[in-house]
Specification:
Distance between the termini: 42 Å
Number of helices: 26
Radius of gyration: 24 Å
Number of strands: 6
Shape: globular
Strand order of the largest sheet: 1-2
Structural class: mainly alpha
Helix content: 55-70%
Length: 557
């Protein structure tokens, strides 16, 4: 059972700040994250001594606070157990199961020579480190349908090539991470599109409750009070406007492309990482702690296996087919409109296309756990039938090596998810609401972007940040007269900044793990690029906040 939420004010930031600062200082994400979760229990207990079991006679005053802080440590297991990674079935399937299935798949691929095969095929088409960097970036753009999916697939696929050409693991992780959330955010046809509609809808419902929803947008919400709900088909045109105002995603992708094409320089620690790798010092430093175990890195191909890139491609294609099939094979139409026309009919199946009116979308989840598990099973069977893995025992050993190789990433994800749970329990949303009182319309977009960036960096999750910020930002946009698509773009951009840069972000952890990078090295080398992108985005939000009138929109809604 989850802890009852409280309003801890500025203290709601403590777990995230402890986790991030200690991870940065110690260069060990596990230490920072663990102590961050522990500090959440201390803060929670200090605010509600009675709830954590402090005796009735000493619940007030300094003694009550001190005892509450001590007794609050009892809540740490509860904060972990009720974190989204464990308490939400979606996270269990699409993150926890998926990451272990990918680990097992990598173990099988190494043993069967599939990784060696793709390395040989890519090496025949890449002549230099620059070519390897371009390939890594373009692979991320190609597999942009989902941020988790991108991080899990691209790092595993490109690591042999970038290792071959002495591109540092930190650089590979940067490309994987930069084509994760920033690109997925722009893919309206992905899992993100449907989720973003839901977040915007929650903000519109809150605006109606506060009495700030304009009469011209009354059709966007049906019902009133607690029974109010968003009409999702009305929201899609509004959402499409944010594809133009989501400045951070476009800028982050553009900078990553310029880095890959050797136009934008390697900044600060990334320069050191690349120089060491190019000079033969290794793609990871001697004092680094790569997110793939040494046992996994040293695991060898079976001597009787035949290296073949197709043995890599086939399981990946199975994963993509299953993942996309879960999204688009729906009982209801994926795309609908008030007027539809029948385009084709075959064996009882019909293809209907929109013929007029506003489009709406019904896109299912990508089901990463199902997709990754299917790919792992197909690989197991195929490699055994081919003889590229000699026995079932050998194949099982390969799976176990893969599971163990990815274990560190799973632990860090567990603690990062617990931090997200902690700041929500401590009431970060109430604290953030107070920051916008009296803000003039022209400065609302940049203010929303900066605050959302701070919250997202602190809780490590763009989606949890959107759950906090949209019900705050949308009523403020209506009340202040700020341009709504610009404010929505500011929320989206701020959330992606945290996903792209925070050491407790799940996608940042996944990028480190599948790329085989030390997690904190990845964070420290990537953040200069993220800050440059955020700085440019902030200037654009400030400029367009001054220039765009309230009623401006690219797509009518």
């Amino acid at each position: 059972m989850a802890l009852e939420s409280i309003d801890a004010g500025v203290w709601s930031l403590v777990p995230a700040l402890v986790a991030i600062s200690l991870a940065w200082y110690t260069r060990d994400a596990l230490i920072g994250l663990f102590l961050g979760v522990a500090s959440a229990g201390v803060v929670y207990g200090a605010f509600v001594p009675k709830t954590v079991g402090v005796p009735a006679g000493v619940q007030t005053g300094p003694v009550g606070i001190a005892l509450g802080a001590l007794f609050g440590l009892k809540t740490v297991p509860q904060l972990v157990a009720t974190a989204p990674l464990f308490s939400d079935a979606w996270y269990v399937e699409n993150v926890l199961i998926a990451i272990f299935a990918i680990g097992g798949l990598i173990g099988l691929m190494i043993r069967a020579g599939a990784i060696q095969g793709v390395l040989e095929a890519l090496a025949a088409r890449a002549d230099s480190p620059a070519d390897a960097e371009k390939a890594a970036f373009l692979a991320g753009i190609a597999v942009h349908i989902d941020d988790y999916f991108n991080c899990l697939v691209v790092g595993s696929m490109m690591r042999p090539l970038t290792d071959r050409y002495d591109v540092s693991r930190a650089k590979l992780a940067y490309y994987v991470d930069s084509a994760g959330s920033p690109a997925a955010r722009l893919a309206f046809y992905s899992t993100w599109g449907a989720a973003m509609i839901g977040f915007i809808g929650a903000g519109l419902v809150e605006a109606q409750k506060q009495g700030t929803l304009p009469g011209s947008m009354g059709s966007y919400v049906e019902g009133t009070g607690e029974s109010a709900s968003a009409v999702t088909r009305e929201i899609w045109p509004l959402f499409f406007n944010t594809l133009f105002t989501g400045f951070y995603s476009w800028i982050a992708l553009a900078i990553a492309a310029l880095v890959a094409w050797q136009v934008f320089p390697n900044l600060r620690e990334m320069h050191s990482e690349e120089r060491r790798a190019r000079n033969g010092g290794g793609v990871v430093g001697e004092d680094h702690d790569p997110m793939i175990s040494e046992e996994m890195a040293a695991y060898d191909m079976y001597e009787g296996a035949t290296p073949d890139w197709r043995n890599f491609a086939f399981p990946i294609l199975v994963m993509i087919a299953v993942g996309l099939g879960a999204m688009f094979w729906r009982a209801n139409p994926v795309i609908s409109a008030p007027q539809m026309t029948l385009a084709a009919s075959l064996a009882g199946y019909e293809l209907w296309l929109p013929a007029g009116g506003k489009w709406s979308f019904d896109i299912g989840g990508v089901h990463l756990g199902l997709a990754a598990t299917a790919a792992m099973i197909v690989a197991f069977v195929a490699y055994r039938l081919q003889g590229n893995i000699p026995s079932n025992d050998d194949a099982t050993d390969a799976l176990m090596r893969g599971f163990k190789g990815i274990f560190l990433a799973a632990v860090i994800l567990m603690l990062a998810s617990s931090i997200q749970n902690a700041v929500t329990t401590l009431g970060i949303s109430n604290f953030v609401t107070d920051w916008f009182r009296g803000v003039p319309a022209w400065i609302v977009p940049v203010s929303v972007f900066l605050v959302t960036s701070f919250v997202s960096f602190s809780d490590g999750s763009s989606w949890s940040t959107y759950g906090i910020m949209f019900p705050i930002a949308i009523p403020i946009a209506f009340a202040s007269g700020a341009n709504l698509p610009l404010v929505l773009g500011a929320v989206f951009s701020g959330g992606i900044f945290g996903d792209h840069s925070s050491p407790i972000s799940d996608t940042t952890v996944l990028a480190s793990s599948t790329s085989g990078s030390d997690h904190m090295v990845h964070v420290r080398t990537q953040i200069p690029y993220a800050l440059v992108s955020a700085g440019i985005a902030a200037l654009l939000f400030l400029l367009f906040g001054l220039l765009l009138p309230e009623g401006f929109r690219v797509i009518p809604y």
